[in-house]
Design brief:
single chain, 99 residues, alpha/beta, two-stranded parallel ribbon, 8 strands
Length: 99
């Protein structure tokens, strides 16, 4: 009986944490209005992206994106622009679209 309650508790916690992860994922677009730094909040429409987020980079930004450290995101869409990796790793765990 204890094992069953334990398993149900673990399953419930797993579902709760997966829902929290889905809620905290966001989409944000690079506007590059401040500078070229990935880590500058003002360069993004919805704050600096983290590993759960989906980002879009459009060709109309005044400053191109340059990484200043390794970054990890879920999905990436690039519309006619470039990203300077600066020698760092840009890990995309979902899908990348290059238009």
């Amino acid at each position: 009986m204890k094992a069953t309650i334990y398993n149900i508790t673990l399953l419930t916690l797993g579902l709760i944490f997966s829902e929290i992860a889905l809620i905290s994922a966001k989409s944000t677009t690079w506007n590059g209005s401040v500078n070229s730094s990935y880590s500058t909040s003002g360069n993004w429409s919805n704050g600096i992206p983290d590993s759960l987020d989906n980002i879009t980079i459009n060709s109309n930004a005044p400053n191109d994106l340059i990484l200043i450290q390794n970054q990890k995101i879920t999905n990436l869409t690039i519309n006619g622009d470039t990203v300077d990796l600066g020698g760092y790793t840009f890990e995309i765990t979902g899908t990348a679209y290059f238009n």
